[in-house]
Amino acid sequence: MIRTTCPYCGVGCGVRAEAGDDGAVTVAGDALHPASRGRLCVKGAALGETVGLEGRLLSPMLRSEAGLQAVPWEAALDKVAEGFRRIVAEHGPDAVALYVSGQLLTEDYYVANKFMKGYIGSANIDTNSRLCMSAAVAGHKRAFGEDIVPGCYEDFELADLVVLVGSNAAWCHPTLYQRIVRAREARPQMKVVVIDPRRTATCDLADLHLPLKPGSDVWLFNGLLAWLATQGALDSAWVEAHTAGLGEALDAAGQAGSLLDVAKACRLDPQQVLAFYELFARTEKTVTAFTMGVNQSSSGADKVNAIINCHLATGRIGRPGMGPFSLTGQPNAMGGREVGGLANMLAAHMELDDPAQRAAVQAFWDAPRMAHQPGLKAVDLFHAIEAGTVKAVWIMATNPLVSLPEADQARRALAKCELVVVSDIVQDTDTNALAHVLLPALGWGEKDGTVTNSERCISRQRAFLPAPGQARPDWEIVCDVARRMGFNGFDFTSPHQIFDEHARLSSWQNGAGSQRRRLFDIGGLAGMTHSDYDALEPVQWPVCRPGDRTRRLFGDGRFSHPDGRARFVPTRARLPAHLPDDEFPLVLNTGRVRDQWHTMTRTGRSPRLAEHLPEPYIDMHPQDALLCGVKEGELARLRSNWGAGVARVRHGGGIARGSVFMPIHWSGRTASDARVGAVVNPAVDPVSGEPEFKHTPVRIEPF
Ligand code: SF4
After folding, report:
1. Separation in Å, CA 79 to CA 287, 394, 430, 524
2. Coiled-coil segments, which residues (predicted)?
3. What is the pLDDT confidence band of residue 601, given thresholds at 50, 70 and 90?
4. Residues 143 and 114 in one domain
5. Which of 76, 152, 226, 475 gets the highest tally of CB atoms within 10 A of its CB?
6. Å from CA of 681 to ligand 1 middle
7. Which of 175, 327, 453, 606 to mutate to test the pocket of ligand 1 (most atoms within 8 A of CB)?
8. Could you tell me if 149 and 273 lie in one domain?
9. Do 375 and 413 belong to one domain?
10. Radius of gyration (C-alpha) of the chain in whole angstroms
């Protein structure tokens, strides 16, 4: 048995996996992993059914007039390196880009980021994590001075009140949800509040469900902050000692008006709002967890800060059982953030727009040409490709023609792009259909490295299967292209060496004259031997010295801003970017289903997982269906200003009048195009660049 980590959600459960002589893979939960303590959800438990080679990309391929042809690695790597070198020489470094993924391991992410930002000299490397948690990153940086989740999963068990905002944790973070369930069984006095426009499976646990109007979260939390102030429920001494900006935040929050005004803006019963506010005010041990329902909004960063403001105002942060908590969607969204895998970040939590920090990283990397300004964020990147300013893109471990908003625009962009390179584990995807070069990558069970989960816990993903065909690790492919382009600094021969450099950079930058205390520091994991790295046990960062164990941060009231104080961020409630009208009267919300993962390239292989919800669907209220002339069980077309998709109408019972829900998983390579990304509007949060997946005006038509 190999101890490894689940490749799906940000809970990051430990898995024990083994391949039998007949090739069959068995998996079980890893009782020693602190995130999951032996538990797996149904997706994790079915991992053994998803590792077969059917449909795998097993050879590099180049497109010619005859279509895609298998070629030797040398030819494919030459094509990528020559293409990137020529376009950079002719048009400058910003004419090329990488679009990567929270599925990459930290070591893959590290070399991809180093390649672009330190050697190509452009920050045009963004990630599909932009689509799910960049609002949380922006909120953390504004409030704390650094992208940090202060708490740990144990806080959900120690809390007397768990508030879940925009989170269907029962389906999307199942083993963590089960920890809350068990904690509540052990301590029935513990309360759970769910804030979500939909009545989801998570609401089964709720003492109070607030089905707020889509997009109105800032009103609710601004109202809470103002109400806490009027009730004398702020921790004034703590605020005075450790924060700045409460006055401005209260001014902004006051614009939410009275509790009745808030209830009206959120379309809630005032008694429910009051019940939530009173519960929050009297419960010191409160965890407020948030995820896509908060982040995927044109005001996502403000929603995050409106939540954090309430925790700062009450001093409820960094201590057992309390704090704001960002639940990440992907297995390594956090690891990607740590190595700077977003277009507006550097490495090791340093800032691209800080000349001293840029110089520090450049010196550490001995890099010839550093990016000197933020690059293009995901949505802007695909618009730049369509406009022709970005002429080559290398996509790794993601399928943007299904997952991006306004996905038909992304398809137009790739169709026009001079050079589209895709590294993937499967051959046949919407995105790969437009690739000029396909590079076969290793998948889960074959690749080796680390991931970081939502509670800052670094865990090993370990290989227990042989590399299939000619597939290779992503880090090695990037290094080969970099060396072909004449770049030094990519002589890595193992993920262990990459992790070591990453760990050394994290501590080196703290000692490099920086005036700001950076908490991301894993210098205590530098210098491990290869076998130490192989045996690395799950560990939460920071690890400044070997043996450090840090469950929570900010408990000492010191934050990462230069003056050590947290910042209140004034948040002004604003409406979503696009509102329903006579032509598009309904609001589309999107999300995951319990048993599928992203574009189903893995979970779609398991018949067991398909049993739960076997096909795409549009969940809507029966009265709205009647008005639209569609019936449950029939196919219907969902249309917006940006595109259309087809799925079967369903009345799940959790949808309010005026809203519809469609899952994100299904692709355009089915009999009917069920890509909900094609329907989603491309509006983004101006602070974080995160798209507004949760609010697109649509209409439903009979198919
Ligand atoms: Fe754990 Fe998430 Fe994997 Fe389920 S999908 S086993 S909750 S990491």
Report:
1. 51, 12, 22, 40
2. none
3. confident
4. no
5. 475
6. 29
7. 175
8. yes
9. yes
10. 24
End-of-domain residue from the set 469, 493, 517: 493
Does residue 174's CB lie within 6 angstroms of at least one atom of ligand 1? yes
pLDDT at 511: 56
- Are residue 382 and residue 442 in the same domain, yes or no? yes
Strand-strand pairing, 125-127 and 161-165: unpaired
Per the CB < 8 A criterion, the answer to whether 628 and 639 are in contact is: no
Q: Give the domain extent around 170.
A: 134-327
190 and 266 co-located in one domain: yes
The confidence score (pLDDT) of residue 667 equals 79
Q: From the CA of 173, how far away is ligand 1's center (Å)?
A: 7
139 with 287, same domain: the answer is yes
Beta carbon of 451 within 6 Å of any ligand 1 atom: no
**Residue 97: φ, ψ to 5°:** -155, 155
Q: Is 8 in the pocket of ligand 1 (CB under 6 A)?
A: yes
Decide if 693 is inside a domain. Answer: yes
Ligand 1 near 6 CB (within 6 A): yes
pTM of the model: 0.97
Q: Is residue 523 part of a domain?
A: no
Query: Which residue type, as a one-letter code, is found at position 582?
Result: D
Helices (H), 543-695: 607-610, 622-628
Task: Please give the tally of structural domains in the chain.
Answer: 4
Q: Provide the pLDDT confidence category of residue 670 given band limits of 50, 70 and 90.
A: low
Q: What is the CATH number of the domain that holds 630?
A: 2.40.40.20
440 and 362 share one domain: yes
Domain membership of residue 499 (yes or no) is no
Q: What is the pLDDT of residues 464-474, one digit of tens each?
A: 999 999 999 99
Instruction: List pLDDT tens digits, range 574-583.
Output: 999 999 999 9
Claim to verify: residue 180 and residue 310 sit in the same structural domain: yes
Q: What pLDDT band is residue 602 in, cutting at 50, 70 and 90?
A: confident
Q: How far is the CA of 602 from the centre of ligand 1 (A)?
A: 14
What's the rounded Cα separation, in Å, for the pair 683 and 690?
8
9 Cα: distance to centroid of ligand 1 (angstroms): 5
d(CA 116, CA 126): 10
Q: Tell me how far the alpha carbon of residue 321 lies from the centroid of ligand 1, in angstroms.
A: 22
Residue 253 domain-assigned (yes or no): yes
Q: How far apart are CA 396 and CA 475, in angstroms?
A: 11
Exposed / middle / buried, residue 156 (Cβ in 10 Å: 0-12, 13-18, 19+): buried
Distances (CA, A) of 181 to 1, 169, 185, 498: 30, 11, 6, 39
